[in-house]
Amino acid sequence: GAALLGAWLATNRSLEELSIWECGITATGLAELLAGLRSPGSTLLRLDLDKNAIADDGAGMLGDWIATSPPLQQLWVQECGIGPDGVAR
Questions:
Q1: Element (H, E) at 5
Q2: Strand order through the sheet with 46-48
Q3: Which residues, at least 6 apart from 31, have a Cβ–Cβ distance to it below 8 Å?
Q4: What is the three-state SS of 69-80?
Q5: What does DSSP assign to residue 13?
Q6: Residue 71 pLDDT level (bands cut at 50, 70, 90)
Q7: Is pLDDT above 90 for 85?
Q8: Distance between CA atoms of 44 and 36, rounded to whole angstroms?
Q9: Whole-prediction pTM
């Protein structure tokens, strides 16, 4: 599922909000999604990943993506298993 969504995101040039709330996304799935969102022309402004098991590894990936992403305005990551180590990444 995440790989298919990531492939679609790589071709999308109009999506501004993506809510993947409580969908069982892990750090592996998040990597697939972020690969799609790294494509030139991404317009994503709001990303909701609440209640997915992205954990500390996913937090690091998100940090790297945010540093090079379009101007993301809102990010939700409540109850994603991110601990102090993930916040520090």
A1: helix 2-11
A2: 17-19, 46-48, 74-76
A3: 61
A4: CCCCCEEECCCC
A5: S
A6: confident
A7: no
A8: 11
A9: 0.90
**Would you tell me how many other CB atoms lie within 10 Å of the CB of residue 60?**
18
CB of 54 within 8 A of CB of 62?
yes
Partners of 75 in the beta sheet? 47
β-bridge partners, 18:
47
The answer to whether residues 34 and 7 touch, using CB atoms and an 8 Å cutoff, is no
Reference 70, options 47, 86, 54; nearest CA is 47
Q: Which residue has the tokens 């790989």?
A: 3
CA atoms of 40 and 84, how far apart (whole Å): 32
* H or E element that contains 48: strand 46-48
Amino acid letter, 6: G
Alpha helices per DSSP H over 16-73: 27-37, 55-68
**pLDDT tens for each residue of 8-38:** 999 998 999 999 999 999 999 999 999 999 9
Q: Can you say how many angstroms the Cα of residue 8 is from the centroid of all Cα atoms in its chain?
A: 14
Residue 20 carries which side chain, given as an amino acid letter? Answer: I
